[in-house]
User: Which sequence fits this backbone?
C-alpha cells in the first residue's frame, strides 16, 4: 500500500490517527456509557441473552466475580450469551480500571459509566430497585426485556442457573 502525503498537516493527522488506533487496541475500556447509551448497547444484542455486570475497582466481590463472568462468556457465548461489564469508577480512577482489566483479561467488553450527571438517575434507569450496591447485575432475555436482577456477589453456578433458563 502506497501512502501519499499532500499536506503539511498530513503527518500530524497520520500520527494522531495511528495513536488513536494504538490506544484503542491497548485500552481495556470499550467506551463510556450513560443510561441511554447503555440501553442502546443492550438493544444491539437483541437475540442474545445479555448479562450486564456493574463493578468498581475498589469492590473486592466485584473483582472476585470477574473470572466467573469470563468463564460464563467463554462457555455460553456460542449459545447466545453476551456479558457486558460497566465500571462505576470515577473518571480519575481510570488508570486503576485499565490496570485491573489488563491484569484480569476479561473475555467480555467493559464500559465505564460516563463521568458526571446524576448517579441516582443512572441507577434508577438501570433498575429502580438498585440501591447503588456493587456488584450488581441485570440479566436480559433474548427479546431485550429485563428478566432478572442479581444484587451482590454471585457464584458461577448461580449465574449459570439463571442464564440457562434464558438460553433454552
Assistant:
Amino acid at each position: 500500500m502506497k501512502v501519499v502525503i499532500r499536506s503539511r498537516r498530513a503527518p500530524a493527522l497520520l500520527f494522531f490517527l495511528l495513536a488513536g488506533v494504538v490506544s484503542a487496541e491497548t485500552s481495556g475500556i470499550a467506551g463510556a456509557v450513560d443510561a441511554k447509551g447503555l440501553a442502546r448497547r443492550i438493544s444491539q444484542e437483541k437475540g442474545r441473552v445479555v448479562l450486564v455486570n456493574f463493578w468498581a475497582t475498589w469492590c473486592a466481590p466485584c473483582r472476585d466475580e470477574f473470572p466467573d463472568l469470563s468463564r460464563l462468556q467463554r462457555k455460553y457465548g456460542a449459545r447466545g450469551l453476551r456479558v457486558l461489564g460497566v465500571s462505576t469508577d470515577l473518571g480519575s480512577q481510570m488508570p486503576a480500571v485499565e490496570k485491573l482489566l489488563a491484569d484480569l483479561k476479561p473475555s467480555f467488553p467493559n464500559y465505564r459509566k460516563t463521568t458526571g450527571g446524576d448517579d441516582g438517575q443512572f441507577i434508577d434507569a438501570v433498575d429502580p430497585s438498585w440501591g447503588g450496591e456493587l456488584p450488581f447485575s441485570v440479566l436480559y432475555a433474548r427479546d431485550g426485556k429485563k428478566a432478572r436482577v442479581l444484587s451482590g456477589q454471585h457464584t458461577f453456578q448461580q449465574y449459570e442457573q439463571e442464564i440457562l433458563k434464558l438460553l433454552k
Remarks:
- The chain has a mean pLDDT of 87.
- The longest helix spans residues 10-26.
